[in-house]
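Table S2 (continued). Query chain:
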Amino acid sequence: MQEAVDGLSRELAAIRTGRANPAIVENIMVDYHGMPVPLHQIAAISTPEANLIIIQPWERSSLRSIEKAILKSNVGINPLSDANAIRMVIPPLSEERRLELAKLVSKKVEERRVVLRNIRRDCIGKLRGMEKDKEISQDELKTATKQVDEISDSFVAKATEIGQNKEKEVKEI
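Corresponding output:
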């Protein structure tokens, strides 16, 4: 369940807001000497200003392939290249785009809630199987089921909170 919530955090970090965030570009796959490699492994990514991402490749020869990968990735930001680095100015989001992104955040949060509920269902199914095989008593089954429900509810609440924070961030001007 913790992995599902952590995965949600990583997924939502990649959603663009009006603010610069290295997570927007760090997992873009770049063709590096014939192999696809995540951008963060071949370049330093920094955000010196609230609306600027700077990508400095460790090898100048990879500058062109990084630029192509960013253009192909559909992040919605055009890279500006100079001799040593790529600059990406984050434009302010339109109200329409903010609403689209908020819907996307809600969708991703709901997908993770479904994952968490499936994990809960599987755990309770295993507990019932153990009770059926006489490995645990009915009282132990009830206690364990209650614990699984409490744990599941806490993780669903965490996922919801993460989603609400991201929605607030997306809707912020």
